[in-house]
Amino acid sequence: MISNDRIREIISSSIINAICIDDEFCAPYEAENGNIEIPKSMCANFRDSHGCNLDVYHYTTKENLEPIIPVLFGNRDLLIVDWELSPDDTVKYRDTLRIIERGIASRSLRYVVIYTQSPSIEDIVKAILHYFSEYRKDFRSIEKNIVERFDEFSESNSLDNDGDEIWEILKKGVSGLSLNPEKGKEIKASINQQLNTKMNSGMTVQLCRLINNIVKEEGFKSTIDAMNWLDLNVPNSDTFYSCNAYEASLLTPYSIHIDNTIVVVLQKNTNPDGCVIPNLVAPEDVFDKIVDSVSNVKNIRTFIFSILLKNVMNDEIAQWGKSLGNISERALVYHAKSYDDTDEFIQYFSNCTTGLLKSSMLSSIGKEDIHELFKIDVEEEKPLCQDLCNLNCFLTFTDKRKLEDMHTLQTGDIFILSNPYHPGDRTEEYIICITQSCDCKRPQKIYHNYVFLHGHEANLKKALTSTEKEWYSFISSEKAIEWTHRFFTIHIESQKRFDINRPIRVVLNNGKNNELTFLGNQKIEYTQRLINYAFSHAQRMGIDLPHYPENG
């Protein structure tokens, strides 16, 4: 594994431009508006010790800040923001959360640091996890529904415990789960034990079944997800959520990963009266504490590699701006004329730049760094099925959420059928387009008859064991599709381009109406393997000769 000193060096090099937003701090030229000594000390340390430019913005109101956010956040690597920007509001950190969200949405910010006088980091972390939660649900209405369901359960089973009592056990039982996700099973077992003391084990089993049903009805992925949501909502049930859905997860007790941004909470070493508090973070130590915090995150190897890659892209793209790798403009313009569709030329151009980036990466990123970064240690744990499945998905599949809304039907497009074409014991059926790319581009040549393979959801462990021998597609961290060799055609008229968010209505060969819901696209090299498999099977020569049965 790469050394800690090298990790710190790489992280430090990724922070070049920063902005600090605080209602008490001000820039030197705004000395009459607030505290200048703390930001002065911080700016000097950032510049002189770390080669980072830090600007300071004196916060007054969200309305004053909003028009200049694009300027403040443009080309920034780091945002430092106070937690309670609006001390007179009921929710003092409301504006802070909205500013953080704008920073994450800017996509350039890699790090956000909350630099605060608030005494409780735990409360801050929970408030952030709650605000960015993917489960934006009305706590009060869900609580009312659950208590009523528990009341009905108690009454029908002649229990002494009413719905409120059971609900209180659950609320108290999940306490701390959001900040200790690794204890999910332990907390779940503890809740079961508490329920067993209130009722016999048979009733507890029935109650758990009811809870599992409620979890599914409310749209949670799992019971642990629901428990985590409950823990976040018990103290924050009257607060608010972000405007958009984000993937938020705890990295350390004081850091959170939100989409592609790391949020770290640091405590100021001064109280509101200006008195110094020992063992907390002084202004001149902020930069080092950021680096320390980030260097301890999970998946540090991939994170460090992404920094190295970003540095290469920044340097190389700047060079491309001069000459684009010495590619002739005349040649590009000439070749562009051979493409009728703009999207097709964009794809070709993307392939050109990918090749340039690849060569730049190989020549610019230190091979020693990459080797040390991904060298397997003896104590390395075997990855989970979901981890390998997710990696395969990353390598082979592009989810529709990463594509434009209007999409050209092409080789490797994967759909799910609303009504299975080959009914069996598995309810869901998937299909993948194996029509060659040249025919997809000109569907009139094939009379709009596209060729598909069909498949069903596979067992993950089996798929990962046989993925190089059999025929699978990985479309998420939890789902793989096993394909058959049987192919069929679907007539899709005037669907060269379609809205990926709307199902395509078709009539299959069985004469029944159906709908194709688009999931995403599998890369051509992996789809070509399926094509070879399907058509080689179709071309086999069958024979009929006397033989012993396979079972002996």
Would you give an account of this structure?
The protein is of the alpha+beta class. It has 4 domains: 6-132 and 245-298, Rossmann fold, CATH 3.40.50.2300; 139-233, no CATH class; 301-374, no CATH class; 385-538, no CATH class. It is built from 20 helices and 17 strands. It has helices at 4-13, 37-50, 62-65, 69-73, 94-105, 121-131, 139-156, 163-173, 184-198, 201-217, 223-233, 286-295, 300-323, 329-336, 342-364, 367-374, 385-396, 437-441, 460-466, 524-538; strands at residues 17-22, 53-58, 78-81, 111-116, 248-252, 255-258, 261-267, 397-399, 406-408, 413-417, 429-433, 449-457, 472-474, 480-491, 497-499, 504-507, 513-522. The strands form 3 sheets. Strands 8, 10, 11, 12, 13, 14, 16 and 17 form an 8-stranded antiparallel beta sheet that branches. β13 and β14 form a beta hairpin. The longest helix is centred in the middle third of the chain and has 24 residues, at 300-323. The chain is globular, with a radius of gyration of 29 Å. The two termini are 54 Å apart.
Structural class: alpha+beta
Ends apart, CA distance between termini: 54 Å
Return the CATH class of the largest domain.
Alpha Beta
Task: List unreliable stretches of 5+ residues.
Answer: none
Oligomer: single chain
Number of domains: 4
Instruction: Estimate the helix proportion, in percent.
Output: 40-55%
The largest β sheet comes out as:
8 strands, antiparallel
Radius of gyration: 29 Å
Give the second-level CATH assignment, the architecture of the largest domain: 3-Layer(aba) Sandwich
How many helical elements? 20
Our estimate of the beta-strand percent is 15-25%
CATH T-level fold name of the largest domain = Rossmann fold
Q: What general form does the structure show? A: globular
Mean pLDDT: 84
By CATH, the superfamily of the largest domain comes out as Response regulator
